[in-house]
Amino acid sequence: MRYFDVRRLFAPHLCILLFYVYNIAGVAIPFSFVTFTIHRFCCIVYHTNLFFKTKRWVTICIASQWIGEFVISLPFIFRRGSYCSNELWMQIYTCTMATFLPSLINTVLNIRIFAYVRSSTQRIQPQVIVIPTNSSNNIQQSIISRRDMSLLRQMIFIFFIFIIG
């Protein structure tokens, strides 16, 4: 009977594979948040386009998430240098691809979703407060509806879950 030998796990070519799989696992959850945000953005902003409500669109989103993970992790396979060293550039690259880039994409898309929903709310129910002043000019200040506040709270909550998790 053969026993598992840890030294075989860190053989030169297997070590590259381990770093590749480790990076894929590291970017999987942030990329799923990005995929979720892209799906939600397309469903909200392009709600009249029926394609974004189909199973095919969901399949495309999930497939592109996995393809993106495999492609972004390719530098771990095609790197130069010693095989089993965790170099500084690899840590910076993983941190950038797993934290900063998904955070930026999520923030931009959530701002665009919020702006779109806010503008549609104002088109449907324009709510303003007229503040009288001493002069003849009145200042109009828009009210943020409960729907907009709920959406904003949900987006902030999801962002914190993304950063903390």
From TrEMBL:
InterPro entries: GPCR_Rhodpsn_7TM (IPR017452). The chain crosses the membrane at residues 20-45, 57-78, 90-115. Its main location: membrane. The keyword Transmembrane helix applies. PROSITE patterns: G_PROTEIN_RECEP_F1_2. Residues 1-165 form the G-protein coupled receptors family 1 profile domain. Keywords: Membrane, Transmembrane, Transmembrane helix. This is G-protein coupled receptors family 1 profile domain-containing protein. It comes from Rotaria sordida. The lineage of its organism: Eukaryota, Metazoa, Spiralia, Gnathifera, Rotifera.
